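User: I would dearly like some help making sense of a protein record. This is the protein in question:
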Amino acid sequence: MFVLQELMNFDSFWSFWFWILHVVTWSMASHFTMGVPYDLVIQANREEAEDGPYQHAAEAMINAQIFRFTAMWRRHALLLTGFSAFLISMLATLGTLGRLEFARALLTILGPLTLLYVLTIRKALKMERWALTGAPLRRAIWRQRFVNQLVGLLAIIMAVILAIYQAVLSIEVLYW
């Protein structure tokens, strides 16, 4: 019974579920770069023929996602920016001034995800402007995937540092 209670514990940084959510979030953000499964891009790069089915599928999916991101940004830029700024500042305030561990934990996931979303929109706007096709288009997706992985790595490192900081704070309170 104790093991089950430990697994279902929702104390943020010490929760098994928090770390699973963290890893799954960054794994999905890395695999589905701009909403395109990266294995499709790999298959398209492996094809020998220039007009292979994987290359057509990858290019069509990438262009659809570019259109989707840019159209959504043009329609809802102000709303997305305002809501994101409110959410991140609320979590930062509750996590620092309110000393809520749950807010800090959410900030370690949502803060970098917001940064990643901004970088993805910028990349989609650039790719639309450049009108890339073929290998240069897939190379741009590869670069964005690298950025996704880098942001995810830094987010996990930041979460570990905050978890250690939280542990030091709780130990310091116990000994005072």
User: Anything to note?
Assistant: The chain has six helices and two strands. Residues 53-96 form the longest helix (44 residues). Residues 2-175 form one domain. Helices lie at 2-7, 16-31, 38-46, 53-96, 101-130, 134-175.
